Structure to design on (596 residues):
């Protein structure tokens, strides 16, 4: 039904593509076929698995699909964000294989695997996004960018409380010549700990990361904690509960593609924000997972703020009627730096974005970096998807 | 993404050519009616104008509102119809909330093609400096314009002047780092002046 792989493989001469994508799969990636319906989901796995793409490694990967299958009308119960086919970069980039960096982590020399669930892959994009340039430079220079990004950001389980390695695929092309396509598994903050969303100075050690050898990364995973709910929903100073303020989750990543001999090829640091996660950290709960929906049943919060949508119904955390299912998201694009004045455009890095060299190597992921040095421009800013919601029929946590 | 305009080199070269031709022609005519008594006399002009500014490069935001500009020229007569001097100017405008400034300094010449007429041709060259937050641009500047003296009492005059300054072949820098090469800067000023001849 959806042979999205073919769409990405038509023009062999285009150097921007992740690779000359094969037409025939030689097998399935680890990430393929791991979703199966539960609860209120009405689509069988066989329908879900029709949404696939063949990666540069000739393995079959899952990719973006709508929340409702247009052919059968069945629902998958989860969504992957904005349809990437609307992006101006889609013709260059093609369908995004979910789990490609995860797949090649160990082969590239990392000592342990890291695999992620299916529903956490979220796509976002914007065409002709007007960027900020330097300090006050937006009045001097006009830079517009097309951006297509996929982040694995699961906000329904305990995974991100400890696990800091998450896959990001990031594609950007700007009118000044800045551009790169990066697919990496990026460590976000410190493994085993989270940063409290409502008080960034507080770091909570939750447990051991998976894998235990996960490296430290830049940025942070700011995740709501029970205290945030207490202060901003249960007992706010002004008496007005604010779920969005208490639950806002921000994954602030800091990614770079680095040369083997040292030095940065490209770097970027977007913030991925979720306003309605279906979980928060509660040290007293099983697995540390608290459910915001449970607060809606406290007498003082019935019908208040986001609980209003329940209209008195009593629903579970994974019910489509829950207002907390991770569908309201946006991305702060922030800085985009390229230091590749001498080329080449094609580099291979390991899954962590390191060890970059022009020639392929086992486990190496093909990255594209424009031959350019945009030092001084300081291109950044721009928000994608601020007012979008990806809610759709059947969508529910886990999403 | 939209395409952006190309380099302004040809435009500046054309302006420079016009300036040289105009000055050469005017000097020739003025020399025919030169009054040796005027030579060495001091003159000055202070003008207030409205300035339109256009920064030109592949990525430049070319649209700006008009802003006020001030110029001052002080010099001596080289002949009854030809005067030269040193000039300095400043103009400013607000663009998307950012304060932008254009500074200028250099040598100016004013030549009356017809002795006794208030009409004069303005030429000059020097430096132009553009400033906006951390962005800077410094370049050689050429000026071409016209003015019209209206005599007041004694040696005092007022008048209107229209000048165009063109700069090119320089880089735009952000905090000292070049971010655009071959950037052009054009400023058009129209205003009034007060001076002594």
């Amino acid at each position: 039904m959806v042979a999205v792989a073919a769409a990405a493989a038509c023009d062999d001469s285009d150097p921007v593509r992740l690779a000359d994508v094969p037409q025939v799969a030689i097998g399935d990636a680890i990430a393929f076929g791991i979703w199966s319906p539960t609860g209120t989901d009405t689509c069988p796995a066989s329908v879900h698995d029709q949404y696939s793409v063949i990666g540069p490694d000739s393995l079959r990967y899952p990719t973006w699909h709508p929340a409702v299958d247009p052919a059968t009308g069945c629902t998958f119960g989860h969504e992957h964000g904005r349809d990437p086919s609307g992006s101006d970069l889609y013709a260059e980039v093609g369908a995004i294989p979910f789990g490609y960096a995860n797949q090649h982590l160990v082969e590239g020399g990392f000592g342990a695997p890291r695999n992620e669930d299916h529903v956490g892959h979220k796509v976002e994009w914007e065409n002709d996004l007007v960027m900020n340039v330097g300090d006050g430079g937006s009045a001097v220079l006009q830079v517009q960018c097309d951006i297509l990004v996929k982040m694995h950001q699961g906000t329904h389980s305990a995974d991100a409380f400890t696990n800091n390695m998450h896959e990001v695929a990031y594609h950007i092309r700007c009118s000044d010549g800045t551009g790169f396509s990066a697919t990496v598994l990026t460590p976000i903050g410190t493994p085993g700990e989270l940063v409290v969303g409502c008080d960034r100075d507080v770091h909570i050690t939750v447990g051991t990361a998976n894998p235990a050898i996960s490296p430290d990364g830049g940025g942070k995973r700011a995740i709501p904690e029970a205290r945030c709910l207490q202060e901003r929903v249960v007992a706010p100073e002004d008496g007005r509960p604010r779920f969005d303020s208490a639950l806002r989750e921000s994954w602030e990543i800091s990614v770079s593609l680095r040369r083997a001999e040292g030095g940065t090829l490209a770097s970027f640091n977007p913030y991925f924000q979720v306003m309605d996660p279906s979980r928060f950290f509660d040290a007293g709960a099983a697995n540390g997972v608290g459910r915001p929906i449970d607060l809606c049943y406290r007498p003082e919060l019935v019908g208040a703020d986001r609980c209003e949508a329940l209209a008195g119904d009593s629903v579970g955390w994974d019910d489509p009627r829950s207002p907390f299912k991770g569908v309201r998201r946006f991305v702060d694009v922030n800085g985009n730096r390229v230091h590749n004045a001498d080329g080449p455009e094609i580099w291979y890095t390991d899954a962590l974005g390191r060890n970059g060299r022009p020639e392929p190597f086992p486990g190496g992921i093909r990255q594209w970096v424009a031959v350019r040095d945009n030092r001084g421009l300081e291109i950044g800013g721009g928000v994608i998807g601020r007012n979008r919601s990806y809610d759709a029929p059947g969508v529910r946590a886990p999403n | 993404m939209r395409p952006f305009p190309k380099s302004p080199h040809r435009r500046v070269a054309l302006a420079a050519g016009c300036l040289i031709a105009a000055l050469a022609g005017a000097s020739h005519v003025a020399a025919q009616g030169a009054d040796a008594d005027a030579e060495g006399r001091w003159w000055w002009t202070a003008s207030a104008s409205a300035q339109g500014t256009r920064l030109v490069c592949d990525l430049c935001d070319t649209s700006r509102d008009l802003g006020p500009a001030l110029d001052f020229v002080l010099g001596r007569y080289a002949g009854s119809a030809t005067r030269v001097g040193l000039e300095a100017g400043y103009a400013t405008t607000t663009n998307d909330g950012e304060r932008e400034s254009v500074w200028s300094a250099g040598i100016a010449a004013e030549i009356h093609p017809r002795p006794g007429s208030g009409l004069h041709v303005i030429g000059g060259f020097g430096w132009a400096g553009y400033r906006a937050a951390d962005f800077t641009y410094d370049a050689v500047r050429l000026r071409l314009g016209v003015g019209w003296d209206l005599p007041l009492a004694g040696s005092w005059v007022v008048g209107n002047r229209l000048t165009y300054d063109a700069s090119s072949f320089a880089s735009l820098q952000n905090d000292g780092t070049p971010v655009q090469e071959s950037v052009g800067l054009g400023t058009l000023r129209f205003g009034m002046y007060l001076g002594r001849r």
About this structure: Confidence is low (pLDDT under 50) at residues 2-16, 26-34 of chain B.
